[in-house]
Write a structure and sequence with these properties.
CATH topology of the domain at 126-285 in chain B: Thrombin, subunit H
Number of helices of chain A: 7
Shape of chain B: elongated
Structural class of chain A: mainly alpha
Radius of gyration of chain B: 59 Å
Strand order of the largest sheet of chain B: 3-4-7-6-5-14
Structural class of chain B: alpha+beta
Largest interface: A-B, 32 and 27 residues
CATH superfamily of the domain at 126-285 in chain B: Rod shape-determining protein MreC, domain 1
Distance between the termini of chain B: 209 Å
Oligomer: heterodimer
Largest sheet of chain A: none
Strand content of chain A: under 5%
Number of strands of chain B: 16
Radius of gyration of chain A: 16 Å
Order of helices and strands of chain B: HHEEHEEEEEEEEEEEEHEE
Helix content of chain B: 25-40%
Shape of chain A: globular
Strand content of chain B: 15-25%
CATH class of the domain at 126-285 in chain B: Mainly Beta
Chain lengths: ~170, ~400
């Protein structure tokens, strides 16, 4: 049991990445999230900032870092829309917190776990988004569970490709 | 307290972040008079600042991406255009090459057509039977001025047949093969043709010299021979028919071997160095056109009718001569038995008066003093003794030319 404890895992493997990766990956996620939907015409079933947030929160095993990255990316996402700023920020802050919190308790090297976690956190983000928009703010929002489900699947698929690529960029100690 | 903060640090940060964002959301939303929440149509300064930052972060890469996309699209389009243009250029170049070849071929065909047309015109006007042939080769040597044509013995060619073009004579057939023949050009040293100068009517022998030029040899000095005079075939060599153009006199040079003789250098009428199509005279029997043959048939018919008419006229004259009392003795032998009709008859003009027989007067049954020959001339008039009579075997003719009757003994 000691092997599964948080302190053990936290001490065991905190991945480090070049600063360029830390800076460019979230930026690239934001740019591509704003750019790709223009070409996919309604089939943009993915949320790249969320995938990046989950990844770095997991591998860094740090909820605070995950919250900050998720909150920042969420706010930037909101800023690119005409909606209220902060809805995505709250959702991704929660997702980063959960991913970072889970990362210290599970094997973050396992791809299946990471993909499942990405899928679940995607659904959670969607739920939080809808909750805040419609319940908390009382604003009108048309949404579809099927679309949110497809977005979760899309995020998992992207994670299946992106996570191994980002793993290759980590600094080996 | 420190341990509390350290232990719940993550949650505290979470709560702080959520609280800050919820407050931020709260200030962006306001309640309308109808009780519904809505976003401010105009962003607050802080929200606008955040949007400005987001735009500043995202817009440059987007612009860069867009520019890269346009550049790549333009590059790709240019590449495709370049490829298509290159392929099109190659295609056009091929087309140009093909058209050039076709143009050259058509030009050559047109020239050949003109030459053939001239040859056909000449062949149709020419009275002898000819056969068109194509020059297909040469001897390959300057010392042997012969060339080959694509017609041979199978087409009716034979040795020593004259070869010519519409411009003039070319040579004669030297060797005949089944489907080709060797032609000896007139400018070869071993060739020869009888020629005549058109104006001066001076005859000579045409042959080639070592340099391949035509010259007429064996002519006495004559100042009348001038450059530009036409030279025609004389027809005495039994190869070239008479009157065919040979060339024109270029200049007159003295014969180096004989003092009193000259050599006439002739420019050939035919292009001997550029022969393509030639005519071979296969028969020297006159070949008449349909009109000419019709004219000849008509002429023959007219001749036959005229001869029949003449015969019938002669027959009628003969019958009449038998029936009428004639001046001639029917029993006398005819001077020209082959032309009995030429016997002088009244009202008929003899066709050959110089050869017409002199009519013999029949002896008079009752001679008197008016009987021609009975009265002697003034100089010879002597009283005739009684009993004497004119001799009947010496017929006389009336001075007026009218036939008379000899007194019967």
């Amino acid at each position: 049991m000691s092997a599964l404890s948080a302190d053990y895992r936290h001490d065991l493997g905190i991945h480090h990445y070049p600063v360029l990766i830390y800076a460019m990956t979230p930026l690239a996620a934001l740019v591509l999230q704003a750019l790709l939907p223009r070409f996919l015409h309604g089939y943009a079933w993915f949320d790249l900032p969320l995938v990046v947030t989950v990844y770095f929160a997991l591998v860094r095993r740090d909820p605070i870092q995950g919250m900050l990255m998720g909150g920042s990316l969420g706010i930037f996402e909101d800023a690119l829309t005409h909606h209220a700023i902060g809805v995505n920020g709250i959702a991704k802050t929660v997702a980063g917190f959960l991913a970072g919190s889970v990362g210290v308790r599970i094997d973050v090297e396992n791809h299946t776990i990471r993909l499942m976690l990405t899928f679940l956190l995607s659904l959670l983000c969607s739920a939080i988004y809808v909750f805040i928009y419609r319940i908390l703010l009382g604003l009108e929002l048309e949404w579809s569970w099927l679309a949110e489900l497809m977005k979760a699947v899309g995020n998992s698929a992207i994670a299946a490709v992106l996570f191994p690529l980002l793993d290759r960029t980590q600094i080996k100690e | 307290m420190d341990s509390f903060l350290h232990r719940y640090r993550n949650l505290l940060v979470l709560l702080a972040l959520l609280l800050a964002q919820i407050i931020g959301l709260a200030v962006q939303v306001h309640r309308t008079e109808s009780g519904r929440n809505t976003l401010d149509p105009e962003d607050m300064s802080g929200v606008r600042l955040i949007r400005l930052w987001a735009d500043a972060v995202v817009a440059p890469p987007e612009q860069l991406s867009h520019a890269a996309k346009l550049g790549a699209k333009g590059l790709w389009q240019n590449y495709l255009d370049l490829r298509s243009i290159r392929a099109q250029n190659q295609q056009l170049q091929k087309t140009i090459d093909r058209l050039r070849l076709e143009q050259a071929s058509l030009l050559e065909d047109a020239k050949q057509g003109e030459r053939l047309q001239a040859l056909v015109d000449f062949q149709q006007k020419y009275i002898y039977k000819t056969l068109a042939a194509q020059a297909i080769g040469s001897s390959g040597s300057d010392s042997s001025r012969v060339f080959y044509i694509d017609k041979g013995s199978a087409e009716g060619l034979d040795r020593d047949m004259a070869v010519l073009t519409a411009d003039g004579i070319v040579g004669k057939v030297r060797e005949v093969f089944p489907h080709s023949a060797q032609v000896l050009a007139i400018n070869d040293e071993t060739s020869g043709a009888g020629v005549i100068l058109e104006t001066t009517r001076i005859r000579g022998i045409l042959r080639g010299n070592a340099s391949g030029r035509l010259q007429i040899v064996g002519i006495l000095k004559d100042d009348r021979i001038k450059p530009g005079e036409k030279v025609l075939t004389a027809g005495g060599d039994l190869i070239f028919p008479r009157g065919l153009p040979v060339g024109v006199v270029e200049k007159v040079v003295p014969d180096p071997d004989r003092d009193s003789f000259i050599d006439v250098i002739v420019t050939p009428a035919a292009h001997l160095d550029r022969l393509d199509e030639v005519l071979v005279i296969t028969s020297t029997e006159p070949r008449f056109s349909a009109e000419q043959q019709q004219d000849m048939a008509t002429s023959e018919t007219l001749k036959g009718a005229e001869a029949d008419a003449i015969k019938q006229q002669q027959k009628a004259s003969q019958i009449m001569a038998e029936r009428l009392p004639g001046l001639t003795d029917p029993n006398a032998p005819a001077a020209n038995p082959a032309a009995p009709g030429q016997t002088a008859q009244p009202g008929q003009t003899p066709s050959a008066p110089a050869e017409a027989p002199v009519p013999k007067l029949l002896p008079a049954r009752h001679p008197d003093r008016f009987t021609p020959g009975a009265t002697p001339s003034t100089g010879e008039e002597t009283p005739a003794p009684a009993g004497l009579e004119n001799k009947p075997d010496k017929p006389t003719q009336h001075p007026s030319g009218q036939p008379g009757r000899n007194p019967k003994p």
